[in-house]
Description:
Blueprint: E1 7-9, H1 31-41, E2 45-49, H2 50-53, H3 62-78, E3 82-87, H4 106-125, E4 130-134, E5 139-140, H5 148-165, E6 170-174, E7 183-184, H6 189-198, E8 205-210, H7 211-216, H8 221-230, E9 234-238, H9 258-270, E10 280-281, H10 297-315, H11 318-326, H12 330-341
Parallel strand pairs: 1-2, 1-10, 2-3, 4-6, 6-8, 8-9
Antiparallel strand pairs: 5-7
Helix pairs in contact: 3-4, 4-5, 8-9, 9-10
Residues 87, 132, 134, 174, 176, 210, 238, 248, 283 line the site of D-xylulose (XUL).
Amino acid sequence: MANQYKFSFGPWNIHCGADPFGPVVRDELSFDEKLTFYRKLGFEGVQFHDDDAVPDLNELTPQQVANRAKAVKKQLEDHGLEAEFVAPRLWEDPRTIDGAYTANDPQHREYALERSRRTIDIANALETDLVVLWLAREGTYIRESKDSKKAVDLLVQAINAMLDYEPHMRFAIEPKPNEPMDQAFIPTTGHAIGLAYLCNDPSRVGVNIESAHAILAGLDPSDEMGYALAHNKLWTVHLNDQNGLKFDEDKTFGSVDIRRAFNQVRILETYNYGQNGEYVGLDVKAMRTQKSGVSSKHLINSRRIFLRLVDLVRSLDEQHTQDLIKQRDYEELDFVILNHLMGG
Ligand code: XUL
Ligand code: MN
C-alpha cells in the first residue's frame, strides 16, 4: 500500500526573522497562535524544545514542570495535534557555555543531566516517547580544550542515565558537524549510530537526520538516511536544504537541489518510512525578507515539494531504471532522472 505521510515542525520554525546581525522584522506570535497554523498548513505533529512547552522551566519544581506540560497536552488536543518529540535546550544557559554533557565542569554536566530529566518528564506529559538530542555545544573551539575520547565516554554516560531514568523513552541524536562549535564530537549519522551501540540499550537510541547538517558535513542526506534505515534507527527527519558550506541555512526543502531532495524522498518511500508512525519533520526558516502574514510559506512549500517529489518517485519508470542499471548505462540513467525531474 502506498505510504501516507504525516508532517511536523517546531514552533521555532515560525519566527520573527532576527539573525546575528539584526533584530526581529516580523510580529511575534504566541505559542497558541502558532498552534493555529498547524492544521491549516497540513501538519499534525508538533516538535518541541523543552522550554517551548514549559517556558522558564529552570525556575520551576519538577512537579510544576510536569503540570504545565500536561496543560500543553490539553492545548494540543484542542487543536487536533500531537507532540512528535521534545528536545532539551542545552545551549543557552550560562552552565552550558562549555558544552552540556561534555562540559569540563562536573557541576555543569550535572545541570545538563537534570535539565534532560525535566525534558523527559515533559515528553511523558505530552505523551510522546521520543526525545531528540541535538548535541549543540558538545565539541570544541580549539582541539586542546577537551579530550575527544573522554567526551564520547561522557556522552555514553549521559545517554545511559537518560535511558535508566525512563525505560520507555527513545532518544534520537541529531548530528551536526559544526555551528555553534568549530568541531562537533558527533558530526555525522555514523558517529551517532556508533554512539548508540556503546549505550546500555542501543535499541532505544537512534537518529534524527537533518538534510542541511548532512550537507554541511559534505555528505549526501539520502545516503545518511539509507545508513540509518539499515540500522532501523531513522526515527525522525529534519528536511530542509542548504546552499553549500556556510552557516546552517534551513532553507525550504528542495529549494537548492531538487535532485538531492528527490533522492531523500525516494529512499524514505522505498523503505516505507512512516510505517511505524515516524513523522516527516521539517526544520526550515522563512527568509528574513518575508513580511508578517506570509511568513509560513516555507512550511507549506516544503510540504508541497515533498509531496510533489513523492509523485515523481512513484511515477519513475522503475523497470527502465533497473534495465539501465543492468546495462551499466549510468549516463542514460542520469538523463532519465533529470528528464523526469524536468517533467519529461
Ligand atoms: C540546530 C537544529 C535544532 C534541532 C533541535 O541546528 O537543527 O533546531 O533540530 O534542537
Ligand atoms: Mn534540526
